């Protein structure tokens, strides 16, 4: 996966939550663009979670990206 793909997902309008998948089976979800920070080199991504925990992702290890379904459609929750 390229860092450009992650940057595009973080800046998409409208934003859609997405998950990055790592080889050991771990999945890290970015719920809001403000909750993700990319290092200047693109090597690391820090993701903050609702419970104030954080995940540090080594970007070269990302094996897949899943774009999650939007929680709203036509302004209404599903």
Run of helices and strands: HEEEEEEEE
Number of helices: 1
Q: Shape, please?
A: globular
CATH domain class name: Mainly Beta
Low-confidence stretches: 73-78
Number of domains: 1
Q: What characterizes the major β-sheet?
A: 3 strands, antiparallel
Terminus-to-terminus distance: 30 Å
Please estimate the helix content.
10-25%
Class computed from helices, strands and strand pairing: mainly beta
DSSP E strands, number: 8
What does this structure look like?
The protein has 78 residues and is mostly beta strands. It has a single domain, classed as SH3 type barrels (Roll), CATH 2.30.30.100. The chain is built from one helix and eight strands. It has one helix at residues 3-11; strands at 18-21, 27-30, 36-38, 44-48, 54-58, 64-67, 72-73, 76-77. Mean pLDDT is 89; it is low at 73-78.
Q: What's the topology here?
A:
Elements: H1 3-11, E1 18-21, E2 27-30, E3 36-38, E4 44-48, E5 54-58, E6 64-67, E7 72-73, E8 76-77
Quick summary of this structure?
With 78 residues, this protein is mostly beta strands.
Any descriptors?
disordered C terminus; 78 residues; 1 helix; mainly beta; 37% strand; 8 strands; globular; single chain; SH3 type barrels
């Amino acid at each position: 996966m390229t860092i450009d793909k992650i940057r595009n997902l973080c800046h998409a309008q409208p934003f859609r939550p997405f998950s990055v998948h790592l080889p050991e089976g771990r999945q890290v979800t970015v719920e809001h663009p403000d909750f993700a920070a990319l290092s200047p080199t693109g090597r690391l991504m820090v993701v903050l979670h609702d419970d104030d925990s954080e995940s540090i992702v080594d970007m070269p290890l990302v094996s897949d990206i899943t774009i999650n379904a939007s929680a709203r459609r036509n302004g209404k929750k599903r």
